[in-house]
Amino acid sequence: MEYRNFTMSFSKLQSGICPKKLHENIVISDDTENSIDEDDCEMDDEDISHNDNLKKMVFSSEIFELLNSFKLASSFPNLYMAYKSLCTIPATSVSSERSFSKVKLINIRLRSTIG
């Protein structure tokens, strides 16, 4: 069952439905003249790798949507759970810290009214 589900989903992926969505064409403008000195053409390795990284950037939420839309969760349950937790866990802990500080204030008020 899982294998059949995976093969059907994989054939849809190969046909190009979703890779077009994931890998958008990022055009890096290359406005250069034909006669350029060699000194002007020097690019650092960091700049080249940075441009390559721009072309390959995919967000985790897009991969999670891909797993949901093609029903790949049954084929890859561990991957699905990992992306589900990655997308639902907040990047900061501000809301939980704020909740704990409110609880501390309530405890202080209760202690002051008891004694």
Automatic annotation (TrEMBL):
Top-level taxon in the UniProt lineage: Eukaryota
Organism field: Cinara cedri
GO molecular function term, any single one: protein dimerization activity
Name of protein: Ribonuclease H-like domain,HAT, C-terminal dimerisation domain
Residue intervals of the HAT C-terminal dimerisation domain: 63-106
Pfam families for this protein: Dimer_Tnp_hAT
SUPFAM superfamilies membership: Ribonuclease H-like
